Amino acid sequence: MEMLCDKIKEEGTVLSDTVLKVDTFLNHQVDPELMQQIGKEFAARFQEANITKILTIESSGIAPAIMAGLYLGVPVVFARKRKSLTLTEHLFTATVRSFTKGETNDISVSKDFVSSEDTLLIIDDFLAEGQALLGLLDIAAQGGAEVAGAGIVIEKGFQQGGRIIRERGVRVESLARIASLENGTVQFARGVLS
Amino acid sequence: MEMLCDKIKEEGTVLSDTVLKVDTFLNHQVDPELMQQIGKEFAARFQEANITKILTIESSGIAPAIMAGLYLGVPVVFARKRKSLTLTEHLFTATVRSFTKGETNDISVSKDFVSSEDTLLIIDDFLAEGQALLGLLDIAAQGGAEVAGAGIVIEKGFQQGGRIIRERGVRVESLARIASLENGTVQFARGVLS
Question: Using the beta-carbon criterion (under 8 Å), do B70 and A23 form an inter-chain contact?
Answer without folding.
Answer: no
